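Subgroup meeting minutes
Present: P.N., E.W., G.H.
Scribe: E.W.

1. P.N. recapped why we're keeping a running log of single-chain structure predictions: easier to compare across weeks, and new members can see raw inputs and outputs side by side.
2. G.H. added today's entry (125 aa).
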Amino acid sequence: MSERHTCPSSQAGPGATLLGILGPGGRVVYTPNGPRVTPEFQARLAARGGGPLESRYRFAAPCVESGCVFWDGACRAVDAAHEDFVAVGGALPECGIRETCRWWAQQGPAACAVCPSVRTNGSTS
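Output recorded in log:
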């Protein structure tokens, strides 16, 4: 597991960080200083209902590299995001993990242009 890079599209779980909340239109509203996920915090979010946490929130956690289906020596999740979503121009979103983000390390600002559209689990409509 990589301690240096952070996955911006991780599963909810203890130790992950709340990266953002899916807002209107399904775009991520970032929580730049999002809290760490504890079992209690995870239970509170789950109690709100509405499907899997990952379909309503975005989480960040250490990149697991070869432990992820998108890994082939590099992260292909950001490539898939470019195939599925239109890149948005303008200022980079405020992000609490950019310094360690795996996608940023691979693609820089181009990764940030699709990141707000990504939903880790669930329908994008």
